[in-house]
Structure formats: structure tokens, C-alpha cells
Protein: TetR/AcrR family transcriptional regulator
Amino acid sequence: MYDHVHAARPAPPASSRPEVPVTKPVAREPQRRNARSNRARILATARRELGRNPDTTLEELARAAGVVRRTLFGHFPGRAALLEALAEEASEVLRGAMAEAAGPDEPADRALAHFTLLMWSVGDRYRMLLALARHDLGVERVAEILAPARAEVTAILERGRRDGVFPAHLPPAVLSAGLEAMVVALLEQVNTGALEDDGTRTAVAMLIAAGVPERRARAVVEAVGPAVRAKSVPAE
Structure:
């Protein structure tokens, strides 16, 4: 007899139901832009400060970059991660610079001078990596970064040898490895303050080591220098 007490009440019409507010997603793009800006600033600061002092700590880099310690460690949890990011950045810049290399129709001596001047601007920007390579990155990692440049120089030497521009005193791949080692050594001398060079002296030395007479080497570098420097990687 009491069944009517427990009978289900009809649901209110949809129009009378209370509306549940819909939460709009928070826009995260400004946060992402800020994070990218912080990361770029930290890397630029690391290039500058580590170039001055390879023993600079992450805490010191955070202060120099104008970010709190937590922000720096959020991007780079340790020194190895920061240096690897710099190595990858250097690799990308190197590949970008190589896109500006002389074409296959350019005489090989001019092409080698052109390429050396292009690479010097990249090497000068990241020369602090050379000071850190053996201890932090490892020689193999630096060799991996430089591999495309070595291959390009080898190709130029092979072409120059076929065209009679370079003598056949060493196999092209062997000579390319030797020239690479010379450039690395000269960049290290810039680190110590023993050498000042905008790439001109190194380019001349490269051509002489490749077998070009000194007078011709200087004339070639002087001829190609202005155009190459106009598109070289700017120092920061």
C-alpha cells in the first residue's frame, strides 16, 4: 500500500537542470615561448661563460643567464646535458654553414679557402667545446660533430687533385684528417690567447698544407674572404 511513496520521481526537464560550467583549457603557448627563450638564453650564456672559464659551474651560469637555479636544471639536469645540448647546437650550425659552401664549379683552391673561412666562424663560436671535449664530451663526440666537414674537405681535395690544383703528396682522406687536426689546434691556441685570427691566417695555412704555394694561397684567401665573411655565423 505504500508503494506510491517509493515510486521514482520523474526527472526534471533538461531546461531546468543546473548547467555544469565548462573549464576552458589554459593557454600554454606563452609558457612554451618563455621556456624556449630561457633555454636559448642559457645556451648563449654557456657558450660565452664556458669560453672564458671551462670550470664555470651551473649555478654561476644560472646567475649569468638571469634565471633561477631551478629553471636551468629544469632544462639541463646536469653539466653533461648542457654540454650535449651545445654539441647538438654546434652540429646544426655547422650543417647550416655547410649549405653556403662553394659549388662544384668553383676551383678547388678557392673552394677550400671558402670552406675554411665558413667553418672558422662556427669553430670560433664553439671553440670552448674543444677545451671541454676530452674531459666532458669525449673525443668521439667532437669527431662526430666534425665528420660532415671532414667529408666536404676530402671531396674538395679529391677534386683539386684530379684538376691538378693540389699535389698528390697524401691521400685526400688522410690529408683532410690532418687539416682538421690543424684547425682544431689553432682554435685551441685562440682559447689560450696565443693566436688572434679572423680565419684568414688559418685559411692560408690550410691551402699551404694542401700544397698551394704561399703567394697563391694568400691571393686566393684575399679574393674569397669578403664574400664569405658576409654570410658567416655571427659571433655572440
Q: What stands out?
A: The first helix runs from residue 29 to 52.
